[in-house]
């Protein structure tokens, strides 16, 4: 059955004479009447193509034959519907020594060098994802034809690396060098048309025109663009030095060199060796092998596998085709827009028309940023249907309630919704803190009730907490988890407990920052210290982003439910700011003031007075209470899988990815040392720093 479905999926792909050839390994190879060889990469052991040693060894065998037979031309493309190749198989490097990694890279480079040196025309045809080592394989060919749906990129920087199979010297020599470097430095994928504009690919065509484009490339009608004046200037060191300074400045705005060395190392390599491909190749291999041994890379590789594990929590289909969202506020509107952008039919209801109109307007802006294609945006907006009368409820497979955190209001809404739900439909709440058992109290069928806790903004925060309760059915939990994965979010199953996992852990971090601010430490310095630790945003700015009113509500609720010793009391001035509607970014004023673009007006760190207060304990005061709350959640069974805990905290709070997650960081730092440090802080600052008993059990 699987073979038949695979064959059907390939009917739309132009595979030349290789269509009907059985694979002899990972490739299917056949020659057409013009002497053009079609090589179709179609791994028999994986759903998507990846590039690893067996693939490269098999490719080397074919190249050896071509060196002797001298075909008229060679076409390399994928037989997988998903795309050309998803990059290198990172598993091949896990546990390998530096010498073994260098040897493997040397062998890979030799294969691609031989491909590049073949006397016949070589043509890569790419569709779907063409990433990392997959793109490096395409770059070793003479010409690249991209199908219009192709997405090309070098995501290695996300693993604490840079390209290691020739990308660092081939991409800048083929495409606009500054644009190619930017691709590698950011890790962002590029759509086909944009790749054509910078010279990375030679043509963009629809799938039905692939054969004609191959013919044009074969007969020479598909010619490379001449390099621009800027590109020619980058062949000389002074030009690269100027560009490198700009690159370092931009990169430093996003990442710190001490935490994320790979992009800075790549800039150094290009500045020094960019005019000499052979020297760049040698430097690339040495640098890649060194970087993969760093703690940053090891931890970022761990994060990659955490993401894969969370994706793998999906078990079957959710069965959701139509989603109805109740509440068109900030969260409800974004949930609806995101789901519509992911291909779901969505109806959006609210008791007033005005919020629905505002939500659709914001949805258009968000979808333009995310989808970047006017046709896709149009289609997504067509799927997002304003529904002030709630007509979609009776047709929906899933109804998500996203109204203010007032239990009486939610009960009233459930009482109106539940009788309208069709058989098999799920009812979910986006509550961030209310106990699900309390919310489910009035339901006739609580087995189909679940928490789907999204994070703001939905378009950027990848985590969704799947919140259970004692009367939920396993099928409801399974379907809710599957739905989160189907809308390209990462599910984390948690029990219903105060704050669940993320808010329980994040609130002490934010609350302690306010104590530090109350002690007279400048807010910019507090945020800077947290960012130096690796957080994407400091706790003061984060509090403004969340909203001072929401932060105050959550902190007050958690303190009441967990005990007064778990969190410091909210400062009186915070309550006053909320009363004055100085709520943070959403009102333009909060702990910071905000400009017209919504950016905080901060005093530069170097402009802060030298005598302004600081606290050498600051990072531990901010981070250790967060770790303490995470340990409490594990110990209390809110969530027990340490890897999912780390993934949830990275993808839900931005916890320093290069540290591998809070539990991993704690184990690397040493549990005994952390426990003693917390006892010292408790003696100095109060019982909120007392280590949870779960630390001792975590050691076991």
TrEMBL record:
GO biological process: fatty acid beta-oxidation
Record-level Gene Ontology MF annotations: enoyl-CoA hydratase activity; long-chain (3S)-3-hydroxyacyl-CoA dehydrogenase (NAD+) activity; NAD+ binding
UniProt-listed InterPro entries: 3-OHacyl-CoA_DH_CS, 3-OHacyl-CoA_DH_NAD-bd, 3HC_DH_C, 6-PGluconate_DH-like_C_sf, ClpP/crotonase-like_dom_sf, Enoyl-CoA_hydra/iso, FA_oxidation_alpha_subunit, NAD(P)-bd_dom_sf
UniProt cross-references to Pfam families, sorted A to Z: 3HCDH (PF00725), 3HCDH_N (PF02737), ECH_1 (PF00378)
UniProt entry tagged with the keyword DNA damage: no
Enzyme class: lyase
Superkingdom of this protein's organism: Bacteria
KW Lipid metabolism (keyword) present: yes
UniProt EC number: 4.2.1.17
Reactions catalysed, as given in the entry: a (3S)-3-hydroxyacyl-CoA + NAD(+) = a 3-oxoacyl-CoA + NADH + H(+)
PANTHER family xref list: TRIFUNCTIONAL ENZYME SUBUNIT ALPHA, TRIFUNCTIONAL ENZYME SUBUNIT ALPHA, MITOCHONDRIAL
Protein name (record): enoyl-CoA hydratase
The organism of origin for this protein: Jiella pacifica
